[in-house]
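FAQ

Q: What does a record look like?
A: Structure on top, sequence underneath. For example:
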């Protein structure tokens, strides 16, 4: 199983010592060795009490993960191994819980990791403070302000690839819950000289390279820039590319960050336009030109660049050109214009570029502040993070005004460090009531005074010199220094009155040296006056103000002629002094937390620890002093409770529990351990241990004792466990037994109880049934008596009241009414009777609903009656005709389309009066029977479908066909030989008479005829056949039937719709099997 590690103190698993205060022996070597040992194990953080020493690892260590953040969150400072997160957590928690404003002071030389440390602090605080959409936006804006400021304010230097060239102090504001509300950034003195010139191996500010590498072609074109670095005089070329830095990607990061921080698109655009203008200013070149009056004058070599700048910024080209060639001095309402020579013109150009850039930078800070400032007016708690340029010493005499200012700032920080640490330390002793003797330490107040004293300070004298009328040079300034500061202990100069340095050849004549707290620095006096003056010719600021570019105009408010101010602007030195003073005042109101950064080597390389370099930094940061001051009092202190808790096992009286005040417990403990009395002191709430050795002794004893205790605990635990188990089993046995007994008694009791209940229920049942029977009997007796009484009463009452009954009156009235109504109904009907015509559909409406069926019945009877009446009128002959018509209707109605036309025609039978025509005398003679039909028909010729007229005769027994002209009989067929008559369903008169096969008449085949009285003929044929042969003649109605012509069977087919021959049906032989009849 993995061993679980729970660290409860930074003393556990320590590499070297985590807190330098515990270092023994304490000297420079052991100090450095301890740092080195820890550095080799990737432990880059070490404490001096509550101060964190951070050594730049120059490699990314896995110690800033979210898990680490969780580990350090809400833990005590000394509980875990030293870490920047521990300090951040401590600061954040005392801000949130104890309402103390905090500041985090990060110092160290360039490249030591200050900026990284400040970012780590901010990201830790962001990770542990409140959450929520609004809070996250605030956090994001605060964090994203970094990339923007770094792009514009950082540059690659020989010491650091991402060196901050400005000082930055950021106040993060929180509400009472500890949620971030916003922030305020202050910036200090941007190193603007870098814009126009960079030392060897260094670069200009990142943003220039980022634009040229990262911007799209389109965007570059808008800014009138070219991608090639070498096109620009202001860009140092020897190190334009930095290893491991992707300028193009960073450009995107910066633009993105600007967007998050809240820059509008047009603002971003303006910013880049200004940057482009600065870059292009560097390309303006001048050439000398002599004028007649002998004065030197300069002229712009190539006006194209100026033209483009003017287009970019919206400045009138002539105005700008003039500002580069003339200088106007105004004094007491007098204006004097002088021409600029080439050197002056270059000076003016560079001054403009520097001013433009540094003002842009300040504008950016103001703009960011506008975005990130807290939106509410509630009371805020503040955490300040100071990341300021570190102490800088260049070798030889390369230190200039900038280094002087930077080092002054560091001097002030050291001062505040001394003041606050010592004050805090001393105050603690006083608070705790510990006897305290003042500790001597080097106080750098005297150096601060040398620089900032209002009368005799170097800055004051520089200002004086700058303001003095007459010729002022760097040399006159140095002379002045030599006079005033000569006797100052920390000032050194060849020319001072103090003869100490007269022969010091290491000190050039044009230099002075200051013995800073961090070492001696030799300053080259050249450029001091100029840089302090920070002069920008008024013509240029006025030209800038005239720009139509709103941002540039806003950057040069003094160019407005309406606001002309003849007073000199404050010098750079005095401005800086004032802002540093404000900063110091601000810091003093806050609880300080120190991070002292150390650079392990000059190569920006991981795992290299240069002893000499570190030693130098330790010396000037005063770290040993720091440890000594802390140890001069007491090396270690701890509140009584945790101390007793940690060491109580070392003494019988306090182990395992001490009842009483913790302080007494610690006293007993220390007496028991025979710790010499001078080794410790009792404060009001803390024990103070003078020597780390004592603490280590305690720790060793604790370790040993812990092992013994572990064995003891194991022993006791095992005994306890066995006994507990035994006791538990015993207890369980009793419990089980008692439960069982209870259970068996319960069972027994329940049995007796249920028996009793059964017996009881039987007895109760029997009693209840008896009672029920008695009650029922009684009830029946009562009911019987009541019924008898009721009947008896009824009889009596009826007998008495019979005479009064009118029981039948209702019925009689009803019947009478009904009779009356019927009578009325019939009488009315008599008057309303319809006509006697059987086809009259009229019938009066029914008067009463109850007569509905009667009324219908009456209608039916009446109709039957009038039909009978109608029929009775007929004579026998008429009856016959109607019978025939009826027969026709039964045979053809709804079967043949011809039928309806025949209904109205009377059936005459003998259309042709043979007897009266002498032509047919022979025919008449041949037929001696009664003629039923005599009519002319068309006989269809089987060969071609043509028709021939024939006389058709039907007698009682025969069908005859005779020639129309001669009256000769052509065929005679007995009715018994006619088997079938076929016809179509259509409106035509064709019909076929089929003959019995094998009969005499069948020799010539069937007849296909057509007649105008087909319905009558077919009906009569049917009736006659039926009466003579008692057989029903088969009448087939079909649009296609077969006719037997001699040997062939021919199909007769009726086709409807032909209009060929008007309305007459026509017959046509199609082939020898088909005869087609077209019916219109
Ligand atoms: N904690 C750290 N972990 C890893 N690398 C670091 C750390 N601190 C600093 N560095 C490296 O050192 C370089 C310089 O650090 P920086 O903070 O810019 O120095 P300073 O601000 O003190 O001049 C960084 O760019 C980074 O590469
Ligand atoms: Mg930095």
């Amino acid at each position: 199983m993995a061993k679980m590690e729970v660290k409860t103190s930074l003393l556990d698993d320590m590499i070297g010592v985590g807190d330098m205060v515990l270092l023994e022996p304490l000297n420079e070597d052991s100090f450095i060795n301890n740092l080195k040992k820890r550095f080799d194990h990737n432990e880059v953080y070490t404490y001096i009490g509550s101060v964190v020493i951070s050594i730049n690892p120059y490699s990314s260590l896995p110690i800033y993960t979210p898990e680490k953040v969780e580990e350090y969150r809400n833990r005590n400072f000394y509980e875990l191994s030293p870490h920047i997160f521990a300090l951040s957590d401590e600061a954040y928690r005392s801000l949130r819980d104890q309402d103390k404003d905090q500041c985090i002071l990060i110092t160290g030389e360039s490249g030591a990791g200050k900026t990284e440390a400040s970012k780590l602090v901010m990201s830790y605080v962001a990770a542990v403070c409140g959450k929520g959409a609004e809070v996250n936006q605030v956090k994001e804006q605060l964090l994203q302000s970094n990339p923007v400021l770094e792009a514009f304010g950082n540059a690659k230097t020989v010491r650091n690839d991402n060196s901050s060239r400005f000082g930055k102090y950021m106040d993060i504001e929180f509400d009472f819950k500890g949620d971030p509300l916003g922030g305020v950034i202050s910036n200090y003195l941007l190193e603007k000289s870098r814009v126009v010139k960079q030392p060897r191996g260094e670069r200009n500010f990142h943003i220039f390279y980022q634009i040229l590498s990262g911007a799209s072609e389109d965007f570059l074109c808008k800014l009138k820039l070219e991608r090639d670095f070498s096109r620009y005089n202001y860009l140092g070329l020897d190190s334009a590319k930095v290893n491991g830095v992707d300028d193009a990607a960073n450009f995107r990061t910066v633009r993105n960050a600007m967007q998050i921080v809240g820059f509008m698109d047009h603002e971003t655009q303006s910013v880049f336009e200004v940057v482009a203008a600065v870059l292009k200013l560097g390309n303006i070149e001048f050439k000398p030109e002599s004028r007649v009056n002998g004065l030197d004058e300069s002229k712009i070599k190539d006006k194209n660049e100026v033209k483009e700048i003017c287009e970019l910024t919206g400045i009138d080209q002539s105005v700008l050109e003039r500002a580069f060639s003339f200088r106007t001095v105004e004094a007491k309402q007098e204006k004097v214009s002088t021409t600029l020579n080439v050197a002056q013109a270059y000076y003016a150009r560079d001054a403009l570029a520097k001013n433009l850039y540094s003002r842009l930078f300040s504008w950016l800070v103001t703009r960011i502040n506008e975005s990130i400032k807290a939106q509410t007016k509630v009371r805020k708690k503040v955490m300040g993070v100071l990341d300021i340029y570190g102490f800088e010493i260049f070798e030889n005499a390369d230190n200039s005004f900038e280094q002087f200012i930077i080092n002054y700032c560091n001097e002030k920080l050291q001062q505040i460090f001394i003041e606050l640490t010592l004050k805090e330390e001393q105050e603690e002793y006083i608070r705790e009531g510990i006897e305290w003797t003042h500790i001597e330490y080097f106080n750098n107040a005297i150096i601060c005074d040398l620089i900032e004293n209002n009368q005799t300070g170097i800055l004051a004298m520089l200002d004086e010199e700058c303001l003095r009328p007459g010729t002022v040079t760097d040399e006159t300034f140095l002379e002045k220094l030599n006079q005033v500061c000569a006797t100052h202990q920390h000032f050194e100069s060849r020319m001072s009155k103090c003869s100490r340095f007269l022969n010091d050849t290491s000190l050039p004549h044009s230099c002075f040296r200051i013995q800073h707290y961090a070492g001696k620095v030799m300053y080259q006096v050249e450029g001091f006056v100029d840089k302090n003056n920070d002069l920008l010719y008024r013509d240029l600021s006025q030209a800038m103000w005239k720009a139509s570019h709103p941002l540039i105009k806003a950057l040069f408010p003094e160019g407005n002629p309406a606001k002309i101010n003849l007073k000199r602007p404050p010098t750079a030195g005095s401005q800086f002094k004032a802002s540093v003073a404000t900063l110091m005042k601000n810091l003093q109101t806050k609880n300080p937390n120190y991070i002292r950064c150390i650079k392990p080597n000059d190569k920006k390389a991981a795992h290299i620890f240069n002893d000499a370099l570190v030693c130098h930094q330790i010396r000037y940061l005063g770290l040993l002093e720091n440890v000594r001051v802390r140890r001069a009092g007491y090396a270690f202190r701890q509140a009584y409770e945790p101390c007793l808790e940690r060491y109580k096992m070392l003494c019988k009286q306090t182990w395992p529990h001490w009842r009483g005040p913790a302080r007494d417990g610690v006293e007993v403990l220390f007496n028991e351990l025979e710790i010499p009395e001078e080794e410790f002191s009792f404060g009001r709430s803390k024990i103070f241990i003078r020597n780390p050795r004592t603490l280590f002794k305690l720790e060793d004893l604790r370790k040993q004792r812990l092992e013994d205790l572990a064995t003891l605990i194991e022993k006791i635990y095992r005994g306890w466990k066995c006994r507990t188990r035994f006791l538990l089993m015993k207890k369980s046995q009793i419990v089980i037994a008692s439960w069982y007994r209870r259970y068996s008694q319960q069972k027994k009791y329940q049995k007796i109880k249920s028996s009793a209940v059964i017996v009881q229920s039987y007895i109760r049942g029997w009693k209840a049934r008896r009672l029920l029977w008695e009650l029922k009997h009684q009830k029946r007796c009562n009911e019987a008596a009541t019924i008898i009484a009721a009947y008896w009463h009824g009889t009596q009452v009826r007998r008495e009241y019979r005479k009064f009954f009118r029981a039948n009156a209702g019925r009689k009235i009803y019947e009478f009414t009904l009779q009356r109504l019927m009578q009325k109904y019939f009488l009315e009907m008599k008057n309303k009777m319809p006509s006697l015509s059987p086809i009259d559909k009229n019938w009066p409406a029914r008067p009463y609903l109850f007569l509905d069926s009667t009324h219908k019945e009456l209608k039916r009877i009446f109709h039957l009656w009038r039909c009978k009446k109608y029929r009775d009128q007929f004579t026998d002959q008429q009856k016959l005709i109607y019978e025939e018509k009826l027969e026709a209707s039964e045979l053809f109605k709804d079967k043949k389309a011809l039928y309806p036309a025949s209904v109205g025609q009377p059936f005459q039978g003998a259309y042709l009066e043979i007897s009266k025509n002498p032509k047919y005398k022979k025919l008449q003679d041949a037929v001696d029977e009664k003629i039923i039909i005599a009519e002319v028909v068309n006989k269809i010729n089987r060969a071609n479908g043509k028709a021939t007229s024939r006389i058709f005769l039907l007698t009682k027994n025969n069908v005859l066909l005779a020639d129309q002209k001669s009256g000769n009989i052509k065929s005679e067929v007995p009715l018994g030989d006619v088997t079938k008559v076929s016809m179509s369903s259509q409106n035509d008169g064709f019909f076929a008479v089929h003959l019995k096969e094998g009969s005499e008449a069948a020799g010539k085949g069937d007849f296909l005829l057509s007649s105008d009285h087909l319905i009558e003929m077919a009906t009569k044929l049917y009736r006659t056949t039926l009466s003579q042969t008692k057989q029903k003649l088969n009448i087939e109605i079909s649009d296609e039937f077969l006719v037997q012509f001699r040997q062939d069977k021919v199909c007769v087919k009726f086709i409807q719709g032909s209009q060929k021959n008007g309305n007459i049906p026509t017959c046509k032989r199609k082939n020898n099997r088909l005869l087609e009849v077209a019916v219109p």
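Q: Is there anything notable about this one?
A: The mean pLDDT is 87.
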